[in-house]
Write a structure and sequence with these properties.
Elements (H helix, E strand, L loop, with lengths): L1 H18 L3 E5 L10 E5 L5 E5 L5 E5 L7 E7 L16 E7 L7 E3 L4 H13 L5 H7 L11 H10 L1 H6 L19 H6 L2 E7 L6 E8 L4 E3 L12 H13 L2 E7 L13 E2 L15 E5 L7 H6 L2 H6 L7 E5 L15 H8 L21 H14 L3 E5 L27 E2 L9 E2 H12 L3 E2 L1 H11 L8 E2 L23 E6 H16 L5 H4 L5
Parallel strand pairs: 1-7, 11-13, 11-14, 14-15, 15-18
Antiparallel strand pairs: 1-4, 2-3, 2-5, 5-6, 8-9, 9-10, 12-20, 16-17, 19-20
Helix pairs in contact: 2-3, 11-12
Length: 527
């Protein structure tokens, strides 16, 4: 009887205890909720509390002992890797958030989303950190102040303003951290067409600032660790999402900056993948999904998760266009500042003169052939057709100088090879390696390097109308007013402006017509 009375008294106290609890709860969601993610909350004194998200991405924590401001981190491991920083192994999915105040004896909302991760990214940059994860792991809460989110939040509200209004929110008041997120509400609708990732810091090799793109991989924000967002078109992103899912055939462009889609602010810079859709008939049922990313090699394009974002949409009968090689050459360990990071994260080694893959003992993934074969295997496992490309040419002559300049001598030649010299563990020809990989795996090959070499040499007098060489005084392109490269006096010999991107896309279409294994695509092209 005494036991029952004691239990009754205890139970009668529970509502009062619950009512006075200080709770932190929220939703961890990217394009979909993150189930089973580890959520860590760190307070201003460095005290940590940890929990895991439920199947709907929600979490809840008693935080009576914590003192604001709070830094929140969500980590969803990628296979065996739980690292949020490394680029030489597959990265975990990681996002962060900041809650600057905490109301005692109340329920406090703190979501962790791509938008909150970008806010933390901008704060981290402002405070001298490479990106949001460096803040999460090493940040000094004493650097935070009540207004530190004001500018990043204002940029978010401006860029996402139309989408927020269309979804029933007031952009002037919505806070992605503290506004509750519910299943199938306006915020989950917006997030469903957002791709989130973190960039790469060249000097350290660690994950850098937060990058957001829409459902078709058009940039929203991430060119730099601070600055304005591109205006987000929700209706277009939703329509693109539907078109991707309903397409008869999807073509995934797995590549680097020469194919990438760029911010409107950087016009006329374009990658050939950005305009490749224009080569197909409107009624063809083909959708080009251009996930090409600047600065990426074949190895870290996979490790950092860029390929995985695209592959969610891969279906039997689709195509995977694999066009890497430019950044795989970043193998000079003696290069100032970034040499060690390049070799650890970007570099893949070409085959030797006899065609044998080269790699350090125990690291076969660093062989260029093996790195390319990973995409071939993944494409075929999904029922898709892999196609290998040699990279577009650089406008370089035999001396390694910009071709066609006064006194430069001969025209454009291949530059995708390394020679035996200090700083390089192995050397060889990347173009030969791609061709050997194609033959050994019975994969269609498009020799884009040779085609663009021929194109450049045929345009010796006007090549700067195709590669990136902008008049810095052109009022249409204010970005280039302050640039030292990619302008007429110092042309960029690797990347394209709009006219060049369209020319390369046309060359690719022409090569498809010349490749028997790709005959199924020919009827889908414009005639």
């Amino acid at each position: 009887m005494q036991y029952l009375l004691g239990l009754s008294a205890l139970l009668s106290c529970l509502p009062a205890i619950a009512g006075s609890a200080t709770l932190l709860e929220g939703t961890v969601i990217a394009d979909t909720p993150l189930s089973g993610a580890t959520v860590t909350v760190t307070d201003s004194r460095g005290k940590h509390l940890t929990t895991r998200t439920r199947s709907d991405g929600r979490y809840s924590l008693h935080v009576e002992g914590l003192r604001a401001p709070l830094t929140l981190s969500a980590v969803q491991p990628n296979g065996t890797s739980s690292s949020c920083l490394r680029s030489d192994v597959p990265r975990a999915r990681c996002m962060a958030s900041l809650r600057l105040t905490l109301q005692k004896d109340r329920v406090n909302t703190a979501n962790i989303t791509p938008f909150t991760d970008r806010l933390v990214s901008e704060v981290a940059g402002e405070l001298g950190y490479i990106g949001p994860q460096q803040w999460v792991e090493h940040g000094d809460p004493a650097k935070l102040n009540a207004g530190i989110l004001a500018t990043p939040l204002a940029r978010f509200r401006t860029g996402m303003g139309d989408a927020l209004r269309q979804s029933g929110f007031d952009p002037d008041t919505l806070d992605p951290v503290t506004t509750p997120v519910h299943q199938d509400d306006g915020m989950t609708r917006i997030l469903s067409v957002i791709h989130h990732n973190r960039n790469y810091d060249n000097n350290s090799g660690e994950a850098g600032s937060t990058v957001l793109t829409d459902s078709a991989f058009r940039p929203i924000v991430g060119l730099q660790n601070s600055g304005p967002w591109e205006p987000f078109d929700l209706r277009r992103a939703l329509a693109d999402r539907q078109a991707i899912r309903r397409a008869k055939t999807r073509i995934l462009v797995v590549s680097d900056s020469t194919a990438a889609t760029y911010e409107a602010s950087r016009l006329p810079r374009m990658g050939w993948g950005q305009v490749f859709q224009q080569q197909f008939r409107a009624d063809s049922g083909v959708v080009v999904l251009n996930g090409a990313r600047s600065g990426r090699s074949s190895r870290d394009f996979y490790n950092e998760g860029w390929y995985q974002q695209m592959a969610r949409d891969l279906r039997p009968g689709d195509y995977v266009f694999i066009a890497h090689g430019h950044n795989d050459q970043n193998c000079d360990s003696d290069k100032a500042i970034r040499g060690a990071a390049d070799v650890q994260n970007l570099c893949t080694w070409p085959n030797d003169a006899s065609g044998t893959p080269q790699f350090p003992p125990g690291k076969p993934e660093t062989a260029f052939q093996h790195s390319l074969e990973r995409y071939i295997t993944l494409a075929r496992a999904a029922g898709a057709t892999p196609v290998l490309f040699t990279p577009t040419t650089r406008v370089k002559n035999r001396a390694g100088k910009t071709a066609f300049q006064q006194g430069a001598g001969d025209g454009v030649v291949s530059s995708h090879y390394t020679v035996d010299k200090p700083g390089y563990r192995y050397y060889g020809n990347y173009i030969d390696t791609i061709k050997q990989t194609a033959r050994r795996n019975h994969v269609p090959l498009i020799d884009l390097e040779q085609q663009t070499i021929d194109f450049a040499n045929a345009h010796a007098s006007d090549w700067m109308d195709y590669w990136l060489a902008v008049d810095p005084n052109d009022p249409r392109y204010p970005w280039y007013k302050t640039q030292t490269s990619g302008i007429r006096s110092n042309p960029d010999t690797t990347h394209f402006q709009e006219k060049g991107a369209e020319a390369v896309a046309s060359i690719v279409a022409g090569q498809i017509r010349q490749t028997p294994e790709l005959s199924a695509l020919v009827d889908m092209l414009k005639h």
